[in-house]
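Protocol step 4 of 6: record predicted structures for both targets in the notebook before any analysis. Target 1:
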Amino acid sequence: MPEPSHHEPSHTHTQAFSIGIHDVRTGPPHEGAQGEGLLLCTDRGDIQAILHQAPEAQHGVIWVCGARGGFGGPGHGIYTRLAEGLRRDRISSLRINYRHPNVLPECALDVMAGVTYLQHCHAQPVILVGHSFGGAVVIAAGVLHDRVAGVVALAPQTYGAHLAGQLAPRPLLVVHGKADTRLPYTCGVQIYDWAQEPKQLVLYEDAEHRLDECATALEQLLTQWIPATFRSAGTP
């Protein structure tokens, strides 16, 4: 394993939460073969992440999973494919594994630390993408961090997602499978109803909770929605 490299520390503050990054260590990816493994050393514990750095990055995306954490995401590992593909649009990606899975406030802080790290890399503003439990996480973090340009909630839970009504003017994209037996698609509809414009709801007829059945369509949707949202935010 190569010697870890170190970056300047940074700090994130909100009215309710605080997390500081005092060191960043790099190495092989924590999972799979693509991307660069990071360890964000914070005053609340270490956050594992995988960075997909774009040349001359102008924007960033953070990807988080469900209540168990991890890196892969739904749709047959769609996070890795999208993170690599978006590099062509000068969009860097950071896939984050929670310090304390299923603890929503701590997971939101992990995401906020990730936003701060991408800011340090000059990849801002940032779009947040979360699946299942992670959908509520990115909604909460999106409300609390002013460098968030948009939020994507994939098959999201309603618990913790009530802040969706405070996301505007940041756009919200909600995606759900109508065959979801873990979190029924009415959860996504409820979150969409809570949110204000701009917002979009996409329902896939035969897709279950992991959205594997609609992975190709979902990949196409996000490949278009993410760059378009950055353009709408007034960034190149």
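Target 2:
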Amino acid sequence: MRKRFAVLDLGNTLTWQHRLRSLPHEWLDIAARTGSKFYAAPETLAALEAALARVRTPLLFWGAGDYHYVTYARLRALRFPLTVVLFDHHSDCASDEDGIVTCGNWVRHALKLPWVACVLWIGAPEHQPLPHERHPRLVWIPLRRPPANAATWLRSVLPTFDVYLSVDKDVLTPEAAATNWDHGTLTLADLLAWIACFRQHARIIGADIGGEWVLPPGHPFPTRDDLHAIRRNEAANLALLDALLAPHPRPFPRWPKQKPTGRRPPVGFAASGTARSHPA
């Protein structure tokens, strides 16, 4: 049976999502290493890239928001022009002066990859990037939902037809998801509308989803309150899975079996300066 997605359960946060795990998927495991939470030591990044090289599905669930740098590890293997679409309550584009990749600056590292044309940041319509987050190719989108003229608007804002989506569920309201970070203001319906927009008017060549609930230190088993949070996230994950993998004229492509060599990917998964904002 074809695997529908891959799971890299960093932080042991997807273990209790039984409905999600009951679906056909690839389960990835890497040994616990020093420097894996919040930041990626060089050996951690190397282990991640080795594990991700075995993934044959374009959709990845990776666990808690503390590990969002997983997206950077994925992008390093994609050697063709693309636009990253980031759904996150935070820009993840902090300073990287020390050269270490973290959950808070992986976007700035990704923007150094020559094949990443830009990063569209959706999910913080109430505030612009702070001075230390600004980058000339970080494009802040101050919208909760796609505009009515979505096709024309996307042509004006997307530098490439191929897009990679990265979702941190802290972009959602507390009613829609539970994370260990502060929450955004997008509803699940808002996020699903954005995914439908990109499926219809661009080509999604890959995606990842994180921002899971983290159990308190020293508590290997969830309490009743923990389980309520986990079920809320699982419902959001299943809705996102359906939105990304539902039948579509441009279906999600198979993930490349080898590192790309400059060629474009197969037809679709669905069909320091200042940050720019892009109005509707």
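Step 5 preliminary note on target 2. The CA atoms of residues 79 and 136 lie 21 Å apart. Residues 257-275 have pLDDT under 50 and may be disordered.
Proceed to step 6 after PI sign-off.
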